[in-house]
Amino acid sequence: MDSQNTLNASLPHSTSLRYNHMRWEAQRRVLRFLLRTIGMTLLVKLDGVEGIENVPAEGPAILYINHIAFVDPLVVVHVVSRNIVPLAKIEVYNYPLIGLIPRIWGVIPVRREEFDRRAVQQALEVLQAGEIVLIAPEGTRRPALAPAKEGIAYLGARSGAPLIPTAIWGTVGFPALRTSRRWKQPGVQVRFGKPFRYHPRLRRPTREELRLMTDEAMYVLAALLPPELRGVYGQLDQATQTTLEWL
Fold it and tell me: CATH number of the domain at 3-8+22-246, please?
């Protein structure tokens, strides 16, 4: 069964597909042009991208990242040739001026203090439409990995979509003008890992299984990062992969 059929089979029959891909395409195309020609060219120094071939050319996928700086999601959106729908804290919608960008892009707002079922449903609809969602499992910016929230495991289990660990570092200090001192220092690195799915037997996981699934996914992400950024997932010899199915 391919990823699209797996995803469709995993959603309840009562789910109505409210996400409309074409509604967002034109405005995302404009924003991507501005991001590529102005934002990334003038404000962020990109030093290297590895493993981009691990991002599927079509079909649903979940990119999950460590989150160090504000520009992390923007960098990932820039380097991936397909449009991506990020999840972000609902507060970003209220930022002066900058808050217009998530509104125009169609970023999924998340209430971090609770299990946001509405955000999860929106993400599932985006995946059902065959698109990519981007999530930062820690829920906030950290200098090194902290315990991740279980939403990433729930979303992966319910959708059946492949998950792609995406490590990013070197973003602290950006955005910055090309003439600034920051551009004379090492720039941003992005590394995409091999995709995996959660085992089909975990389509409706228990709380304990969700915790294990989350931690196993985060250890995979940690292995892609420099050691000093692995945080609580730094002991790679303690990592297990009992819930994962490599693709």
Answer: 3.40.1130
